[in-house]
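Subgroup meeting minutes
Present: P.N., E.W., G.H.
Scribe: E.W.

1. P.N. recapped why we're keeping a running log of single-chain structure predictions: easier to compare across weeks, and new members can see raw inputs and outputs side by side.
2. G.H. added today's entry (575 aa).
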Amino acid sequence: MDYAWFIPFCVGIVALLFAGFLIRYVLAQNEGSDKIREISKAIQEGAIAFIGREYKALTVVMVIIAIILAILGKPVINAGLGWELAVALLFGAFCSASAGFLGLTMATRSNGRTAHAAQKSLNDGLRIAFRGGAIMGMCVVGIGVIGLSILYFVFHGYPAARFLQIIPAYGFGASGVAIFARVGGGIFTKAADTGADLVGKVEKGIPEDDPRNAAAIADFVGDNVGDVCGMGADLFESYVDSIIATITLGVIGVSVGLMAKESTAWLLPMLVAAIGIIASIIGCLLVRVGEKLEMGALLNALRRGTFSASILAAIGSALLVWILDVSWGVFWSIFVGLVAGVLIGESTNYFTSYAYSPTRKISKASQTGAGTNIVSGFSNGLMSTMPPVILVAIAIILAFKFANFYGVAIAGIGMLSTLGISLATDAYGPVADNSGGIVEMSGLGPEIRERTDALDSLGNMLDFRMIAGLFLGAMLPAIFCAQTMGAVGKTAFVIIEEVRRQFREIKGLMEGTARPEYNKCVDICTRAALKVVGDTVGDPMKDTSGPSLNIMIKLMSIIALVIAPALLGFAGLIH
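Output recorded in log:
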């Protein structure tokens, strides 16, 4: 069945060709006025400068790790591997970085065009923003399966045990890029966002994206490097690691009795991913909306695409199981993963969309003060972890019942098989957010900003990633304490400066003949206490700490898989 490995390779090429079609479409759109072009170009230059510097540092780190693997591989790892591990690691890092760079480049080229198109209609704006984000999705899945296929073509002649030790290094390389892109990008975007918000909205009373705010462009750049490039690397890692894990289980014989041929256990994960890519391409073409600004209409536009992709992936997987003479339990495991992915997405929509009650309750709580706002926000956030955890637990139980541990692994691939379109719905959010900022800075009318804000709200809440809610819930108190302690320190600094100013400028204050301006210090404390809630507290949690922890958990798993043979080798040398 070696020829069958060309199928996922060819489908990966199709994904990149579709990405090329989307790139051509986006670049053919009007870039807008000179002001829009100027702002968009500044965002592009900033994003490329950041990613260039980050990738230089990443290259040094990955080369060092590759050298270590190459040196230790031969004498330590039982299979006698050395250069193979190093090549696989560097290749995985290169593939992940390439997907991130392509997605970032096109996202920064889509924002100005989206702002201009939104002047015509909401549908025009959605089309450009979504297709700009879909480029990231198609690059991730296309390059991911192409990379794994190439590894198979190069190393499939090796014994199964040796091949099993090579492919995790590909995932290790992808994980290295993910931790750099997600953490570095997350810190950049939240630092810029928080700084822009505090100085602009709180201190100066100007709109968030006012052109007079020096941090506005940095904020826009951060949206792209953190929420496009960083998220793309994160999901590239998840995508290839799930395939690698399933292939690994197939190699060690967990799938025995589920399929007629042993080689099918290796091939099936790649073919399921290929079917998901085709389904995602069709789903992307179905996303469109009318002129209604209601969140329900916008949600339905993306639901049409994601639901269609999931249905097509299920049908394709059923045909695949039938053709390959695989146990139907494997299909039902894939189906369970698809359903769980869709329901987790709907749960995210419910807890984050202002079309539903949880977010509206937070908004209502804000009217009575900062305390009720933060309590309501944390309550909603903690409650939102329950549905995904329950859904994943149910999916694991059912998948194991249908096809034991191989079923659990293949269910994960089913959940991620439509990553092409689910990542498109995520990556399009920063494009819409940037376009809204460009509208503000370009001085376009409030009607246009209303359209881009509607697009932005939709992009912010569609997150198909399964974040480990248990870990996030345990982490929240520590982060909250750190945030509030930091806020106390910053406020104390401002108070000190104000007291010094009054002693310096108010004559007679030291002598007791003049009255201090008590209200100034009270006002500073009040504003400082209020401004740490909402975005200032919540954004770093959801966009930096949470996703970074997510990657760290996956990185630990893939490192363990890569170095396990080395540990066995060391044990042999000791004894």
